[in-house]
Design goal:
Helix content: under 10%
Distance between the termini: 33 Å
Strand order of the largest sheet: 14-15-16-17-26-23-22-19-20
Largest sheet: 9 strands, antiparallel
Radius of gyration: 27 Å
Strand content: over 45%
Number of helices: 4
Structural class: mainly beta
Mean pLDDT: 86
């Protein structure tokens, strides 16, 4: 049978993705892009007990999809995992302890026996940034007042508190490289650790500027009666002077300083716990020579307990309740819980959960951490979606379209389409017009703050006509952020807590939020400033049902 693969890009910018398709038999496969008329050859890659065919999609349409056709070209062996160092080979020195892997402008030095990263280099615009780098897995043991004579607050679902305020992590060390897979579109190294419940895959993917670290943690053992809070720590020689940055709900970055609070004099009792902050999208650190950003795929705690170091808490499993409302310890298991009293004992059932996630590591020039993080955050939040169907060999599926985009052209790189929601779609059959009227709620967000990037921190102009696919627009109304009130009504009636001089400035700002109508009366253009979010209700001109 042959496969038809639809890859959907939810971003309002064109992007290239890497797609992996599991197959049942090894061999050589050909993948055809039905919209761009190009073909690629891919050999199955063996990963543990799975066979995977990887291919790059090429540029995917903005808020749209493209169709690919995959079929087997010939039987044959898979690309087998290779050792980093082949001691029987005369090409490599038997004493070699470091191997360099590279893709595009990115290269990474790894220990040939354990897979540990020791250095990352990135070359862009003629500049090479070289950062010595070390990753360390480990865990903090959780405070449990039944095991401490002093009593006190337990670590739990709402509170992180290690057994000792200045506790060093218990290290989890790499012991072996189990697989090294190399193909034309990716290189990956699979690592095992001295704790079997931690696994890691290091990937360089196509021309992506990030080192991808996929981690799998669990089930965390608690048979010893000790809760464990697992972190991945990234150490560099950056001179950060106690400063790092974490995002606030994926928007502005907040400056963090170790053992410091900007609005009061801090007396610190919990050094480790007091220097972790919530991170929803990314964290970064920088000095005058280099920057390092880590983009996460879910909310985590991030801390910097020494200069040049960032660590992320990826999983926790505890044995004590912090007494903050849920009346149970944080101990997620695969089979849930027994019923609560009086119908059961409410005990957890089964092993602890296994969690898999990704960190994307980016390096760049000095004082560029925010720009690095911004360049990847949206893509990490919205991976391409893959849909697969099969058909008998030799049977071509007559697609009406082999690619589509909801937009006529992509948005500027620094603008994200946050919301594109259909508010109404009404049919008008009066006078036999058989027309449809459609209204959308559109929310646009500028993704850069002032000063984060020389080009992308500037205001951007967006054509609403292009955004709605070139359909004629009947009316546009700017709304408040929540979309439930006209912006001009809110601006007119809100209380302004300022002086008379400030009121004049405020009125000028409100006036500036006008819509620019093109000379032909078809297009509305809006300007979005750094970190601004603007919301619009867009009504399209009535069109025939048969209109494409």
């Amino acid at each position: 049978r042959e496969l038809y693969i639809v890859v959907y890009n939810g971003l309002a910018n064109r992007r290239t993705g890497l797609v992996g398709i599991p197959v049942s038999t090894p061999g050589t496969y050909v993948i055809s892009s039905l919209h761009d008329n190009f073909q690629m050859i891919s050999v199955t890659l063996k990963q543990s007990d799975k066979l995977i065919v990887y291919f790059e999609t090429g540029p995917l349409p903005s808020v749209g999809a493209a169709v690919f056709w995959m079929r087997k070209l010939a039987d044959g062996p898979s690309l087998e995992p290779q050792p980093l160092v082949d001691h029987s080979s005369s090409v490599l020195d038997k004493k070699t302890t470091t191997t360099t892997i590279s893709h595009g402008h990115l290269s990474v030095d790894v220990n040939s026996f354990t897979g540990e990263i020791s250095r990352i280099r990135h070359k862009t615009k003629g500049i090479t940034v070289d950062v010595p780098f070390r990753q360390q897995w480990g865990y903090y043991t959780s405070y449990d007042n039944t095991k401490h004579s002093a009593g006190g607050q337990n670590s739990g679902a709402y509170i992180f508190r290690p057994s000792d305020p200045n506790e060093e992590i218990t290290p989890i060390n790499p012991i072996n490289v189990t697989h090294v897979n190399v193909s034309g579109v990716l290189t990956e190294i699979r690592i095992e650790y001295d704790q079997p419940w931690v696994k890691e895959v290091i990937r360089l993917v196509g021309l992506e500027p990030a080192v991808e670290i996929e981690w799998t943690v669990g089930p965390i053992p608690i048979e010893d009666g000790i809760g464990k809070e697992v972190v991945s720590r990234y150490d560099t020689f950056l001179k950060t002077e106690g400063t790092w940055y974490t995002d606030s709900n994926g928007r502005e970055f907040q400056k963090r300083r170790r053992s410091f609070r900007p609005t009061w004099n801090l007396t610190e009792f919990e050094f480790v716990a007091g220097n972790f902050y919530p991170t929803n999208a990314a964290a970064y650190m920088e000095d005058d020579d280099a920057s390092l950003a880590v983009v996460v795929d879910r909310s985590q705690g991030a801390g910097s307990l020494k200069d040049g170091s960032l660590e992320f808490m990826v999983q926790r499993r505890l044995v004590a309740d912090d007494r903050r409302g849920v009346t149970e310890c944080l101990n997620e298991t695969v089979e849930g819980t027994n019923p609560y009293p009086p119908y059961g004992d409410a005990k957890r059932v089964g092993e602890g959960v296994i969690v898999t996630g990704k960190h994307r590591i980016l390096i760049g020039p000095g004082n560029a951490g925010a720009s690095l993080a911004r360049s990847t955050m949206d893509g990490a939040f919205s991976d391409p979606l893959v849909f697969v169907a099969s058909e008998e060999a030799g049977t071509r599926v007559p697609f009406q379209k082999v690619a589509f985009s909801r937009m006529k052209e992509a948005l500027p790189r620094n603008v994200m389409l946050i919301t594109l929601s259909l508010l109404s779609h009404e049919s008008n059959n009066n006078n036999n017009n058989n027309n449809n009227t459609t209204t959308f709620l559109i929310r646009l967000g500028h993704q850069y703050a002032p000063g984060e990037d020389k080009k992308l921190s500037k205001a951007a102009t967006v054509s609403l006509f292009q955004l709605v696919g070139g359909h004629p627009i009947k009316a546009v109304t700017e709304k408040t952020l929540s979309g439930n009130l006209d912006y001009h009504v809110w601006a007119k009636n809100r209380k302004v807590w300022t002086s008379e001089e400030d009121e004049e400035e405020e009125a000028a700002l409100v006036t500036e939020r006008r819509l620019e109508l093109s000379s032909d009366g078809e297009d509305y253009k809006v300007e979005i400033g750094p970190m601004e979010i603007r919301t619009y209700e867009v009504e399209l001109e009535a069109q025939s049902k048969n209109h494409d």
